Amino acid sequence: MNRIAILVDKNLESGAAANAAALLMGQAVRMTPDLYAEAPVLDRNGVCHAGIRHSTIILKAGINQLLNLIQSLNTSDTSLQFAVFSRTGQAMNNAFEQYALRIASMPTEETGLSGMVLWGSDEKVRAATKKFSVFG
Q1: Which superfamily does 2-134 belong to?
Q2: Are 59 and 132 in contact (CB under 8 A)?
Q3: What is the mean pLDDT of residues 47-65?
Q4: Nearest residue to 5 via CA among 80, 87, 111, 89
Q5: Average pLDDT estimate for 81-107
């Protein structure tokens, strides 16, 4: 069984937090398409519903907590996958090329993290995120 955890900066306003969470989930699905079902999930009226295959939780974290978690994931063999999003990205509107160039020129800690998503085995995701509380 797998699990997905989206961690957002606890100081973000709700709209910015929702934006970061949506973009992070999108990136996770690009990296691991089977997080969602291939076939649409339709109700009796033919309305398509989200086909998420794994439990997903949104948590809140401080910037230093996010940076520490990233460092921990980069230095241990956890088999968890992750991606981050930043205020640098949130500040750019329809400017992907500029965003990509800017991010490539910065260390992670200078990007102004908005959040991160990590996914993998339920047990390992829970262990990695046990210090964080539910966003809301």
Answers
A1: Bit1 (3.40.1490.10)
A2: yes
A3: 97
A4: 80
A5: 96
100 and 89 in contact (C-beta within 8 Å)?
no
CA–CA separation, 106 and 131 (whole Å): 28
Cβ(56)–Cβ(7) under 8 Å? no
> Which residues are CB-neighbours of 66 under 8 A, at least 6 positions away?
7, 9, 84, 113, 115, 116
Q: Where are the domains of the chain?
A: 2-134
Q: Whole-angstrom Cα distance, residue 17 to residue 21? A: 6
pTM: 0.94
Say whether pLDDT at 25 is over 80.
yes
